[in-house]
Design brief:
The complex is a heterodimer. Chain A is an alpha/beta fold. Helices cover 22% and strands 15% of the residues of chain A. By secondary structure, chain B is an alpha+beta fold.
Chain lengths: 817, 262
C-alpha cells in the first residue's frame, strides 16, 4: 500500500476492484465503513456480486480479464471531460514530458517489437532531452509529443460502447462508475483503490495496476490522505516477505539480484544506480551503493572488505535473462532438474497453478522437506489421488514448525507497518520457530562444507550468524530474534562522523536511519528500508502508543513502525501544492510552516519547490508514461490466454505479445500438461478462482479447524441461474468442473450473484471456485481448484493467470466427492 | 446494574461470521459435520450446537439489481419473554441483570414449552439430551465486565454493546442517517428486546425474522391461569422437581417476576 489500512477512512470514493475486501480482508471494512459513515461512496466491480458488493452503493459486473479495457475507458472519460487535477498532473507527473519521435503504437503493438523473441526493443520509449540531458517538457500539455497527448490518443479508442462489448459491463454502469470515481479529480477530494490478486493474477497483471496508478496520478490521488494505490496483501506478512526478498529477482530492500554479466561490485552498482542531470531531482536510488555495501556487510561481517568487493562474488548470480519465478521452478522440477526441495510454509500441491503438473513434478525429486503446522497435500503427494506410492522415489521429511503465536518476531502488514509480536504459548511437541530450524540447518551445511570442502564453500563459511550468545563451539546457545531485527536495521562498524549533519556515531551503535548508511564498509544494514526500525531508542516496531497525531488523519505515528523511516503515506510531497500547502486542508498529510514540514515524515525534508515530489524516480515525476514495463509504456487491453473470444476487439494482438509461453508438445489432456485452449467448444465458460472469509489460502490451517470447516465444508462452484438451466443443474447438486488441464467435483451454488455477460453478440457465462480445498482433509471436501488453472504468467512478474481461464461444467449425478 | 442492549447494525454486516465462530469458541460448542447445500449458510439453522448464525438472503432490489442480505440470528433476550413465561420449571429460565434471559440446564425438565412459545423460534431442542439450548447473551462475560464474544469479534462495527437508552438512541440516529427505508427493530414489541437491529429493509425481506413478534395468547393464558396449577402438579408428581422447588424454586420465580417488569 502507498497508504495504510486506517487511511481508507479518509477516502471520498472507494473502488474495490480486483479484490473482494469484505471477504478476504474483513478488517479493512472497519475503515471502509467509517468512510461510508462519513459520506464516502463505495464502488464494487467484480465478475460476481460478492459480500463486498452487498455493501457497495453501486456494483458493476465485468468479465474476468478485461480490467484494462474497463479502466482505459475511465482514462478516456477523465480526459474527454477535463476532469484531471491539472496543476498536480503538470507539476508532479511526466504528462508534460516529450517522448522520442520514434515512439509509436499500431494495432496493439508499441514500437520496437520483436515477434520471435516476444520482446520489445525499448530504445524509442524514452524522453526527449535538452542539451543538459534534462527531459524536455511542455507544462501546457499541448505539444503533440507530450505524454498527455500521446495518452489521449492511446485511450481515444476506449469508448464506452467498445469497452462495454469487451467487458460485458452495461454501458450505463460503466459511466456511473467513471463519473463517481473521476469526481475526485478535485484537489480536496480523494479516492482509493483496494486491489489484490484479482488484478495481479493475469497475463496483464502488472499493467492492470499501472492503469489504475495512472488514473490516480491524473486525478491527483497519490500521496494524499484517502488516496493511493493500495495492494491488499493476501497474507499477514507477505509485505514483509517481499521486503526481505522472498522473490528471486530481488535482494532485501528491493536491491537487484546480481547477474552473471556483472562480475564486480563496481559494475553491479553502476548498473543499478540511476543518474539524473536535473538538480531538482532527489533521485533517491542514487544512494544504491550505500545500501548494497551495507547489505554485504550485514551478510558477511568482517569477512567483507573493500579489497574483496565486500564479498560480492559470494552472492548467487542469475544468468542473464534467467527467470527463476514460481512457474519456472516447477517447470524445471518437472524436467527433473532438481533433486531436493524445501516446501517451507507452503502447499504447492494445492496453491500452485496447474496443480496436477506440480504433483507430478514432486515425483521427480529425491527428497523433499515439508515444513508446516499441519499435514498437507504437498508432503502427502505420494499417496494422493492417482498416485502409486510404490512407484514414487521421493523421500519426504516433515518438520513441524511453530505458529505465529508460538514465537516472537515482527510481521509487516499491507500498510508497511512492521509490528512486533510476542510469544503467547510454547510450540507443541517438537515444533520449532522457523528461525531455529534454519539455524540448525545452517550449522549442518556449514559443518559439511568445513569437513568436505565442496565447490564453493565461501558464501556459507563467510556468513555471519550472530543472533545470540555463543558456546565454546562457536554455535548459538539460543537464538534471540532481537539480534536479527537489529542486524536488519544495521550498525555502525566504525566510529563515523557526519560533519554536514553535525552528527557522529560510535562503533557498535545502531544506525538511526538509512540517511546515515555508507558505501565504504563502515555501516551494515540487512535491509536499508528497515534502517530506523530498531535504533538506540529501542525496538520501534514494538511501540504501542495508540494516540493519533494532532492532524487527526489516523497516522498513529507512534504505533509500531513503518517503512521507509516511519513515513505512513509515501509520495506525500505530492499531497501539497508546489508552495507546500495541502491540496486538502481538511486532511493534511504534511504542510510547510515556513521553516519545516509538519505532519507525516515527508519524502525528504527539502523546502517546497526545491525538489520534485516523486523522489524514487530519476526524473522525479510520477510516471504516466512508464517505460520500465516489458509490455508497453501505456497499458493496452489484451485477452487472457484462455478466453471466450476469437479476436481482441481492440487490436489484432489477441494476447499480451510479451508473455512467456511454456507450451510443451505431447502432454495429454487432463493430466496437468502445459495445455491451453481458447474458443474451444468443449470449454466455453470463463472461470476464476477466489477465497472466502472462512478459509485461508489452501486451507492448511482452516480445514483442520473444525469451527471453520463447518462454515464452508466443501468445494463449491458458483454459477448463474441461466447457466444452471442450460446445463440442467440444480442448486446444491454435485457437478464436474473441467479445464483442459484437470477436473474437480464441486457443489453447485446456483445464484443471482453471477449473471451471463453480453460480449458483442455472444452470451458468455462465468463461474468461480475457491481454491481452499485439498484431497487430504476432509474426506468429502473436494480437491484443489488449481487443478484447473493454467501455467502462464504475467509478462513482468510471471505471476500465474489463475483469475481468467476456460472450463466446462457437467452434471455428475450422485457422485461421491 | 442497568439494562444493556446488543445492537446489530445490518448496514455494516459483511457476513464474515466472526461472531458465529466466536460464539462457538466462547461457549465451547461442538463443531458439527456439515455439507454445502448450495448456499453459504452453514450450519443450516440454529441448533443446540449453534446459538447464533448468519442468514444469507438474495433478494431483488426492484430495479433489476440485487441485494444480498446478511442477518445475525439468535436470541433477542425479550423483556416480555415468551420462553420464560411458558416455562413450568422454576429457575430453568430466568430474567437476569443487564436484561439477559438465561437458561439453566440443570433445572430444565425438557418440556419443550419454550421451543413452542418463542415468537422468534430461537430455543432449539436437543433430542439426545432432551434439553433446549440458546444464546445466554454471554451472561458469564457481561457480569464480569466483558462484552459478549460476538460483539468482541465483529470487525466492522455491526455489533455494538452499551446501555439501553444510549443504544436505542444510537439505533434511531443510525436508521435516520441511513434513510431509504432503514428501520429500528426490537423496541416496539415484547416490551423491548435486549438484542436490537438496524434493518436496511423491511422485516419481511429477511428469512426467519417475524414482522410483529408477540407472546402467543396461549402462552399468556398459560402463564396467568394454568401455570401455577400445573407447576404445582409437576411438583407433586416429580421428585426431582420437588427437590428443586424447595431448594431454589420460589426465590427465583419471585426474582424474575419482580425484575422482569411484569
Amino acid at each position: 500500500m502507498t497508504n495504510h489500512w486506517i487511511d481508507i477512512r479518509n477516502s471520498d470514493v472507494i473502488l474495490v476492484m480486483g479484490s473482494n475486501a469484505a471477504e478476504n480482508h474483513p478488517i479493512s471494512f472497519k475503515w471502509v465503513m467509517k468512510a461510508v459513515e462519513n459520506g464516502a461512496t463505495l464502488l464494487s466491480v467484480d465478475p460476481r456480486f460478492t459480500r463486498t458488493s452487498s455493501k457497495a452503493h453501486f456494483y458493476a459486473p465485468l468479465r474476468s480479464g478485461t480490467d484494462i479495457a474497463f479502466l482505459g475507458g475511465m482514462i478516456k472519460y477523465i480526459i474527454d471531460n477535463e476532469l484531471i487535477q491539472k496543476e498536480y498532473v503538470a507539476e508532479y507527473t511526466n504528462a508534460s514530458f516529450l517522448i522520442d519521435e520514434g515512439f509509436d503504437f499500431r494495432d496493439g503493438l508499441f514500437s520496437g517489437y520483436d515477434p520471435e523473441k516476444r520482446k520489445y526493443d525499448k530504445s524509442t520509449w524514452k524522453y526527449q532531452v535538452d542539451e543538459d540531458g534534462i527531459p524536455k517538457k511542455d507544462k501546457t500539455l499541448q505539444h503533440p509529443r507530450c505524454v498527455y497527448q500521446l495518452l489521449k490518443k492511446h485511450y481515444s479508442r476506449y469508448d464506452a460502447d467498445l469497452v462495454s462489448s469487451i467487458t460485458g459491463t452495461p454501458k450505463d454502469d460503466l459511466l456511473k462508475i467513471y463519473k463517481t470515481y473521476s469526481a475526485t479529480g478535485k484537489p480536496d477530494k480523494s479516492a482509493t483503490i483496494m486491489y489484490a490478486m484479482g488484478w495481479t493474477q493475469h497475463t496483464v497483471g502488472t499493467q492492470n495496476i499501472r492503469t489504475m496508478a495512472m488514473i490516480q496520478l491524473l486525478l491527483g490521488n497519490i500521496g494524499v490522505a484517502g488516496g493511493g494505490v493500495n495492494a491488499l496483501r493476501g497474507e499477514s506478512n507477505v509485505q514483509g516477505s517481499t521486503d526481505h526478498c522472498l522473490l528471486f529477482h530481488i535482494l532485501p530492500g528491493y536491491l537487484k539480484t546480481p547477474t552473471a554479466s556483472l562480475p564486480t561490485l563496481g559494475v553491479y552498482n553502476k548498473k543499478f544506480t540511476p543518474k539524473t542531470n536535473d538538480p531538482k531531482s532527489a533521485n533517491w536510488w542514487g544512494n544504491y551503493p550505500k545500501y548494497s555495501v551495507s547489505l554485504l556487510k550485514a551478510f558477511f561481517g568482517k569477512n567483507a572488505t573493500k579489497d574483496n568487493d565486500f564479498g560480492y562474488s559470494w552472492l548467487p548470480k542469475l544468468d542473464d535473462g534467467q527467470n527463476a519465478s514460481w512457474l519456472m521452478l516447477f517447470d524445471q522440477m518437472s524436467e527433473g532438474k532438481f533433486s531436493g526441495f524445501f516446501a517451507w510454509g507452503q502447499n504447492p500441491a494445492c496453491s500452485g497453478s496447474n496443480a496436477g503438473k506440480i504433483r507430478k513434478s514432486l515425483e521427480k525429486l529425491d527428497w523433499m522437506v515439508n515444513v508446516n503446522l499441519f499435514p498437507n497435500e504437498t508432503g502427502s503427494f505420494w499417496k494422493g489421488p492417482g498416485k502409486d506410492p510404490s512407484k514414487i522415489k521421493t523421500e519426504v521429511f516433515v518438520l513441524p514448525c511453530a505458529a505465529f503465536y508460538e514465537k516472537e518476531g515482527s510481521i509487516t502488514n499491507s500498510g508497511r507497518w512492521s509490528q512486533w509480536r510476542y510469544k503467547a504459548v510454547n510450540p507443541p511437541g517438537e515444533a520449532k520457530p522457523d528461525a531455529e530450524i534454519m539455524t540448525e540447518l545452517y550449522y549442518k551445511v556449514r559443518e559439511l562444507y568445513e569437513k568436505e570442502g565442496g565447490a564453493f564453500p565461501e558464501p556459507i563459511l563467510n556468513l555471519t550468524w550472530d543472533y545470540g550468545p555463543k558456546g565454546p563451539d562457536g554455535k548459538l546457545l539460543h537464538l534471540n530474534v532481537h539480534e536479527i531485527a537489529k542486524e536488519i536495521n544495521g550498525y555502525f562498524l566504525e566510529d563515523v562522523d557526519f560533519p554536514k549533519k553535525k552528527k557522529s556515531f560510535k562503533k557498535g551503535q545502531l544506525v538511526p536511519s538509512f540517511a546515515y548508511l555508507k558505501d565504504d564498509g563502515s555501516t551494515s544494514s540487512g535491509n536499508w528500508l528497515y534502517c530506523n526500525s530498531y535504533t538506540e531508542k529501542g525496538n520501534m516496531a514494538a511501540r504501542r502508543n495508540n494516540k493519533d497525531n494532532p492532524e487527526g488523519i489516523g497516522l498513529y505515528s507512534n504505533w509500531s513502525w513503518c517503512w521507509p523511516v516511519n513515513r505512513r503515506i509515501i509520495y506525500n510531497r505530492a499531497s501539497v501544492n508546489p508552495k507546500g500547502v495541502p491540496w486538502a486542508m481538511k486532511k493534511p498529510v504534511i504542510f510547510w510552516n515556513g521553516k519545516k514540514w509538519i505532519g507525516d515524515v515527508p519524502d525528504g525534508g527539502w523546502a517546497p519547490g526545491t525538489k520534485y515530489a516523486f523522489i524514487m524516480k530519476p526524473e522525479g515525476h510520477g510516471r504516466i508514461f512508464g517505460a520500465g514495463r516489458a509490455d508497453g509504456p501505456f497499458p493496452e487491453h489484451y485477452e487472457p490466454l484462455e478466453c471466450p473470444v476469437t479476436k481482441n476487439a481492440m487490436s489484432s494482438q489477441r494476447i499480451n505479445p510479451t508473455v512467456k509461453l511454456l507450451s510443451k508438445a505431447g502432454a495429454a489432456e487432463g493430466e496437468g500438461g502445459d495445455l491451453y485452449l481458447t474458443c474451444d467448444v468443449r470449454f466455453p465458460i470463463v472461470c476464476t478462482t477466489y477465497r472466502v472469509s472462512e478459509h485461508w489460502q489452501t486451507g492448511v490451517m482452516t480445514r483442520w479447524t473444525p469451527w471453520q470447516l463447518e462454515l464452508e465444508p466443501q468445494l463449491f462452484v458458483e454459477m448463474s441461474k441461466e447457466l444452471a438451466k442450460d446445463k440442467g443443474i440444480e442448486n446444491g447438486e454435485k457437478v464436474k468442473v473441467k479445464s483442459v488441464r484437470g477436473e474437480v467435483i464441486a457443489v453447485a451454488i446456483v445464484t443471482e450473484r453471477f449473471k451471463p455477460f453480453k460480449i458483442g453478440d455472444l452470451i458468455v457465462h462465468e463461474v468461480g471456485l475457491p481454491y481452499h480445498y485439498g484431497w487430504l482433509h476432509p474426506d468429502d471436501g473436494g480437491d484443489s481448484a488449481n487443478l484447473l488453472t493454467p501455467t502462464i504468467g504475467d509478462a513482468n512478474t510471471m505471476i500465474p493467470e489463475t483469475k481468467a481461464f476456460m472450463v466446462n461444467v457437467e452434471k455428475v449425478g450422485k457422485g461421491v466427492m | 446494574m442497568g439494562e444493556k442492549i446488543k445492537l446489530i447494525d445490518l448496514s455494516k454486516c459483511i457476513g464474515c461470521r466472526a461472531c458465529q465462530t466466536a460464539c462457538k469458541q466462547w461457549n465451547q460448542l461442538k463443531p458439527v459435520k456439515t455439507i454445502n447445500r448450495g448456499t453459504h449458510q452453514n450450519p443450516p439453522d440454529l441448533s443446540p450446537e449453534t446459538y447464533t448464525l448468519i442468514r444469507y438472503d438474495e433478494v431483488s432490489d426492484g430495479n433489476g439489481g440485487l441485494k444480498w442480505l446478511m442477518r445475525k440470528d439468535g436470541c433477542m433476550h425479550c423483556t416480555d419473554a415468551a420462553c420464560l413465561i411458558s416455562c413450568p420449571a422454576p429457575g430453568a429460565l430466568t430474567y437476569r441483570e443487564h436484561g439477559a434471559v438465561v437458561y439453566n440446564r440443570s433445572l430444565c425438565i425438557g418440556c419443550k414449552n419454550c421451543v413452542i412459545a418463542c415468537p422468534f423460534e430461537i430455543p432449539r431442542f436437543d433430542e439426545k439430551a432432551e434439553k433446549p439450548y440458546k444464546c445466554t447473551l454471554c451472561y458469564d462475560r457481561i457480569t464480569d465486565g466483558q462484552i459478549p464474544a460476538c460483539v468482541k469479534s465483529c470487525p466492522t462495527g455491526t455489533l455494538t454493546w452499551g446501555d439501553k437508552d444510549t443504544m436505542i438512541k444510537k439505533a434511531y440516529a443510525r436508521a435516520e442517517q441511513l434513510g431509504k427505508g432503514s428501520i429500528v427493530y426490537g423496541d416496539k414489541f415484547v416490551k423491548g428486546t435486549h438484542v436490537m437491529y438496524v434493518l436496511t429493509e423491511k422485516p419481511e425481506a429477511y428469512a426467519a425474522l417475524p414482522v410483529s413478534p408477540k407472546v402467543p395468547l396461549s402462552v399468556r393464558a398459560w402463564k396467568d391461569m394454568l401455570k401455577p396449577l400445573i407447576t404445582i402438579g409437576i411438583i407433586g408428581s416429580i421428585a426431582a422437581a420437588l427437590f428443586h422447588y424447595f431448594t431454589f424454586g420460589p426465590k427465583t420465580v419471585e426474582k424474575f417476576e419482580k425484575k422482569g417488569g411484569e
